[in-house]
Specification:
Nuclear Transport Factor 2, Chain: A; two-stranded antiparallel sheet
Length: 191
Amino acid sequence: MKKGILMLIALSLCGCASTPALPPQGSADEGAEKTPAVDPDHSGDPIDAFTIACADAQVSENETFNVKQEQSEESGIAVYQIEFETEYGDYDYAISVDDGDIVDADYEVDEEWLDRLGGMPLDMNEAASQVAAKIGADTEDVRIWQEEDDGRIRYEGEAFHDGVKAEFEMDAKTGIIFDWNLGITNENEDR
């Protein structure tokens, strides 16, 4: 028990430098099992689907709790279903067992946390570039528009690339994508 507490303290002190250091209200679900996936270059070294999901969401693993992982199938692809929470949002991912690609992603960051999480303001072109980079697309693949709610500007839009559709909402003040949905789309879907 004491070793476990010391390990949790040590892990909480080791944060990811690119993410804000926010103390989680809960602790990682000790019963959650992390099953390694195969790495993208197929060298046989295992990779961790949970780590892939955290990196995509730009969340430190130390900030997560209620982590759940199971193997299932989505759109005919064997995947690891990953679910986790942070103080500021809920995250669901499907990571391909074969190559570690993100097959499906859905997350929401509570808007009240945007200022606390920090970030840099960006214009609509920079927002489109950020979304395009996130899915490996060109900015021409991103449809984006500006909305305003209670005096706060946000960018909303969608992007299609390589059989994947992403829908998003991004805060203009911080550059944080606070609502993200990505999934495999029908090749014939209207754009």
